Amino acid sequence: MRRTLCSAAGLLLGSMTVLAADTIVFGAAISITGKTAKEGEYTRDGYQFAVDKINELGGIKVGGKTYRVELKYYDDETKPERTAQLIEKLINEDKVNLILGPYGSSPTGTAAPIVERYKIPMVEANGSAEAIFSKGYKYTFMILSPAKNYLRGVIDTILAKDPSVKTVAILGENEAFSKEVAGGAADFAKEKGLDVVYYELYPTNAQDVSALLTAIKGKNPHIILGSGHLQDSLLIVKQAKDLGVSPRAMGFSVGPSSPEFRANLGKAADYVFGATQWTEVLKYNGEDAWKTPKAFGDAFRSKHPNYKIVPYQVAESAVAVIAYQKAIEKAGTIEPTKVRDSLAALDIMTFYGRIKFDSRGVNVYKPMAAEQYQPDGNKYTVWPFDVAEKPALYPMPPWDKR
Amino acid sequence: MSGAELGQIAVNATLLSGILALVALGFSLVWGIMNIVNLSHGAFIVIGAYLTYWMHELWNVDPFLSVPVSMAVLFGLGYFLQRSLINQIIRAPLLATFLLTFGLEILIVNLLNFFFKADTRSVMTPYSGTGFTIGAVRVPYIRLGALGVSTVLVLLLGAFLTRSRLGRAIRGTGMDIDAARLTGVKAPTIYALTFAIGASLAGAAGSLLSMVVPFDPNLGGGYTERAFVICVLGGLGNVVNVLIGAAVYSVVEVFVGSRLPALSQAVTFGILVILLVVRPQGIAGKSFN
Amino acid sequence: MRAVRWILLAAVFAALLVLPRFVTSYKLLTYTTVLCLAIMAQGWNFIGGYTGYAAFGNVAFFGIGAYTTGLLMLSKWQLSFFPALAAGALLAALVATAVGLPVLRLKGHYFAIATLGVAEALREIAGAWDSVTQGATGIDLPVRSDSAFFYYTALGFVVAGIALTAYLVKSKLGYGWVAIREDQDAARMLGINTTIFKVAAFALSAVFAAIAGGIIAYQNIHVAPNDFFKVEYTLQMIIACVIGGSGSVWGPVLGAAVYQLLSTYVWSHFLELHPTVLGAIIIFFVVFLPRGLMELLRRLAAVAKGGRFGSDVFLANIRASRLD
Hints:
The complex is a heterotrimer.
Chain A: H1 2-21, E1 23-30, H2 37-56, E2 60-62, E3 65-75, H3 80-92, E4 98-100, H4 105-118, E5 122-124, E6 140-142, H5 152-161, E7 167-173, H6 176-191, E8 195-202, H7 210-219, E9 223-227, H8 230-243, E10 249-252, H9 259-265, E11 273-276, H10 293-303, H11 312-331, H12 336-344, E12 347-350, E13 353-356, E14 369-373, E15 379-383
Parallel strand pairs in A: 1-3, 1-4, 4-5, 5-6, 7-8, 7-9, 9-10, 10-11
Antiparallel strand pairs in A: 2-3, 11-14, 12-13, 14-15
Chain B: H1 3-34, H2 41-59, H3 63-84, H4 94-116, E1 131-134, E2 137-140, H5 141-163, H6 165-175, H7 177-182, H8 187-212, H9 220-234, H10 239-259, H11 264-278
Antiparallel strand pairs in B: 1-2
Chain C: H1 2-18, H2 25-50, H3 59-74, H4 81-103, H5 108-128, H6 130-133, E1 139-140, H7 147-169, H8 172-182, H9 184-189, H10 194-220, E2 222-223, H11 225-228, H12 231-244, H13 251-269, H14 274-288, H15 292-304, H16 309-313, H17 316-321
Antiparallel strand pairs in C: 1-2
């Protein structure tokens, strides 16, 4: 009797340790509810999609062993201090192996020092504020192009269509990422000889920007650029329409790339430009499982038929997991500090673009792109010009003439 | 600043003051009559917004037509809450009702979050965004309509409070509850009715707001704050005071919002604190304790 | 009886001292947070509990403490933690005095909302004052890994707070506060300089909040306006006092512990409905036990001496406060 019990216990313990040892768990705190709930969903779906694909293809092979991968995540409710708390929980209590970033620069900013404290790497795909990387942290890596580049493509597209454009108004959310986007856009505009006639940051929870738009209307700028998140771009477009503010062109950093943009605005979305980290028509050919943007898009859609277009947050989140995979395979171990070093030395081409980090951990090697909603109901990539699906439409007809 | 911008600011302020007057009126009624600062006022506004949204989504009810429905629902809810909950501690020190309504607000907002998620909603109708233009100034139809509805409700409330028996009973109870009871007035019922009316006005405001701004369950907090500032600005006591407060506040908000958006709350509260210290009874009100 | 109480206290204290050796770093962080909540609640107790002025904006001082501590540690003088913390507390006290002088003349609702306004205004200023606070981007304090440091620091301040409260309650200041709460005009006529007493209470509450702010800032590393000036912190300190019993020495600490226990339990079991449950708890206490658990304990003791259980223990408040 005792021998049976002992061997049964031994078997159980043995199998448990085998199970535990053969799974790499990625931990993440993502905004599934709250202001950036939609973007958080895209992030989670992206992570899960890549995790599932890796497992489908047999897992990650390291040092003679094969590991399954798993995603463990919690909802941080778009509250950055909650993110930090949850990351602590994931590392200390759930004992995850590696960390994947949250959605948004503010939560990433609270998470970065935490992972630094525990020396566990974090590959983040949704927080592009460079401020996070100015503190000398060694354990955080950013997949995406930095914030200040977001609106450059939009400005370039408009200038190519109409070199006589002179004035630009910039409206930004007073938040880590959007501030940098707005600042970067202003600097780039000035570089190109434009006049920034209006530049204001509004509070994060603003529900009414009609006062700002009224001031902008008074200045009559050629271009209006908005830097915020999905909700902000919806608000600005709606209230601009309400107040009859009709610039020659309008562009946003975040928002247009999401299917919610058209769903919420209907025809009001026409002619609006949006910055994007990635679209399906770009011509990348990578060393990952999907290789091209189009293949990735098709594969994702077959698993998630409700996504007609694939937002860039999905793609960049998925590639974060792939970056980890490549780094782990190159390192030959899952030990966090070694994985960290391997990430620092990574240089791969993927369906998302080139993934290589500079000494701060920022991916300065991947360019942005720009899209536009057009009256035929679709959204097209309009920049860089060599991969543009269709030429941009310009100028934007005034609201009351549509 | 150009004449056009000034003109647009004036129009924006006027249109905004309509909705804000409605928001503040319900709040001031409850405060003036029952001495309760209802921190869950904002939550009632959000409920009204969701009611209109769902009626529009599910049954295509025009948002303007949904106003009476949302008023009726919130009337019932307000009556129930006052009678069953708030009435239990209504004679306790101020902090008690303050905290109670605060707890209520957290509860209601979270329940809304739970059932409807934090997604931003807005009510879009075929006539959203349309308006007419006078010179360089634009007047959106929906905001104008909201101003119209608010005006009607404000006039109705004013008439009710001054001319009807029930209205006079409410005002009497607010002035001197013991004297009122001596004349046969049932104080708990009056209180419940007052709170219910306040809630229904909040519901109406919410319905109108759902057309004007994109909202989520957290919409209400900012409006409760504004209601408070308006009541302090205008003074409690009667409907006209609230209207004055709303008008002044709207001008300040639109003006500060266009010049210093990052500090709009700081400026608003700065004005509030100065006002409270210098003239707590407000621009038009009588001294109030 | 009293000896038993002291022995129990000593036992609890000893347990708290050796706690770090038995729990994970993460659990220790949550305990430090509870201790900091207790510190804030103890501070609020002076102005809200003893003096009867319900301040709704004490998170303003929490934030001032956090930013001052952080900025001084990051400045060219590279101050170490405790001097920076002291500076934060001092600044908070000064701001409280400056704000308190005009605002403490207001009563009831007006005072509450005015203090709330001050907190909101400071949040915006922290977000807009890029050159000093880095605005919305926030600042990062030096990284420190030993959670036990934060725990013991917080524990030390909680104990100091208890000692200070116990001392002040029996002093002229304490009696003056209660006199102001019960009948301010009478207090004035008795020669109490109500302004000085009120400002002292307010400044003390600011010092406590600032200390808590500095500790949490160092623990969390990243300090941003929306996180450190959020109204939830004010609420937590007030709820802790309500649950534990404001106007008593042990109430705030007890309340903080119970609140955190409830909050953690609710968070792990009803994650999405967490605020609903908290709202219900607030309502429950405000309606049935406004004087908190300390009062409950007192009433239970009275029942033991021969009162009726249900209506005396739970319904006493309703009977006194409802309108029929």
